[in-house]
## 1
Amino acid sequence: MLTILQRNKAKTLDFITQLLIGMLGAAILFIFFHLEVPAKPIVTVDVSGMINRFIKSETAVKLPPEKMQKQVQAFGNTLENTLHTFARQKQVILLPKEAVIAGTKDVSLEIESRLKAKLPPANRNF
């Protein structure tokens, strides 16, 4: 009789151990799959359009080459900083508009307004 109780007790302990290990594994899988970082959405920006409009507006002013070069470099740096800041703040991946055929949101107007706010007043006419 005692050996039957010991066997039942051992089987019960084995069952409880397996149950707890299974629950631990399920909890680990749950945490792994539900706490993963969500994918960032992809949005497009018409960078080449902004650059073309800026170049057209700057060439219409007829500046000396040295001043033109400084303004173009300042525009490029400001554009790059604006794009990086926007992507970081909005948690998105930016692609040039030409690289995507369809299915993404275009944020060019928002980027352009942020860019114009950062540029000196003389360079905001693009």
## 2
Amino acid sequence: MIDGLLRLIGLGGPEAEGRQLARDARAVIEMIHGQHAAESLRKIAATAKRHIAEVHERGLDEPKFYKRGVEHLTDLNRAARNRRDNISWSGITLAVIYVKAEMIGDFGKPALNAIEGYFDEWAHADGDADVSSTSDGMPSGRIGGSSEA
């Protein structure tokens, strides 16, 4: 009900959510650059990519099926935060933002671009042992691309 009222006066909906996701993506990326060394930045990128790939696989590469994946990531994020595992927390947070941005389509492009820029900066993370078993299905570059299945 509140969402409907906010949209009615122009304060809600996917456009507003897209702007918020873009702000969140930039804030998280700035935070992790300020708090982590290069090795941690690679692990964060690898963690995020792995979780995004898992949501894509479970959701059949169809954004309309990603809601359950976001819920699962949110649970994992909470557990990482409780363990004070900042690397996992940061990677999962980026994955949640990325998947939510995919779900809202074109309005999510700024958030996707920010996160993909971070991935491009740390592209060599694909070689990390942490993701070697799960990255074989990942395309290089854009994560949200077309399915090859």
